[in-house]
Inverse folding.
């Protein structure tokens, strides 16, 4: 695979207007795509990666598309405790709103006099080219669901017993006795 394919990890673009009308898409990563993603995340292997994505237009004055995603898969990675490889299922969800860039430019001037609420903390993603990259959101959901330090079932970290260092006074006392 080329460097450009690795940089994007997974692209699956849909037109903004098509997504606004509502759609459901099932994305399944093939073996090559899973290998690229596994390498990028530092996994031993990504045995399966599937996503169900739905889009719909949100009511209101401006066209906003909500992307809802459910992710399932299976990962092989090193145990964070034993360093042994193990496979385990992975799952996650993501919900994100998207708005086209030309719809946002007029709103920037209003921000100075506006009072913000908690709803404003999660601003929509700004779409610049008229296309929403669903693959990018699958990778984002995987990043949120993946634990790079997962533990193999039953693995327990036991702190090694520390050798007690002698106190400085004990060392001095020993030196005095040796003289």
């Amino acid at each position: 695979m080329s460097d450009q394919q690795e940089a994007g990890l997974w692209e699956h673009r849909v037109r903004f207007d098509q997504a606004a009308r509502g759609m459901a898409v099932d994305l399944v990563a093939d073996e090559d795509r899973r290998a690229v993603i596994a390498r990028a995340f530092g996994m031993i292997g990504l045995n399966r990666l599937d996503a169900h994505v739905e889009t719909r237009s949100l009511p209101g004055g401006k066209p906003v598309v909500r992307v809802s995603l459910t992710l399932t898969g299976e990962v092989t990675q090193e145990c964070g405790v034993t360093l042994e490889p193990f496979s385990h299922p992975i799952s996650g969800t993501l919900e994100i709103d998207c708005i086209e860039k030309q719809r946002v430019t007029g709103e920037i001037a209003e921000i100075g006099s506006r009072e913000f609420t908690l709803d404003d903390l999660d601003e929509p993603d700004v779409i610049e080219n008229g296309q929403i990259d669903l693959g990018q959101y699958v990778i984002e959901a995987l990043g949120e669901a993946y634990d790079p330090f997962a533990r193999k079932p039953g693995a327990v970290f036991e702190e090694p017993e520390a050798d007690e260092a002698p106190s400085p006074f004990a060392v001095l006392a020993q030196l005095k006795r040796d003289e």
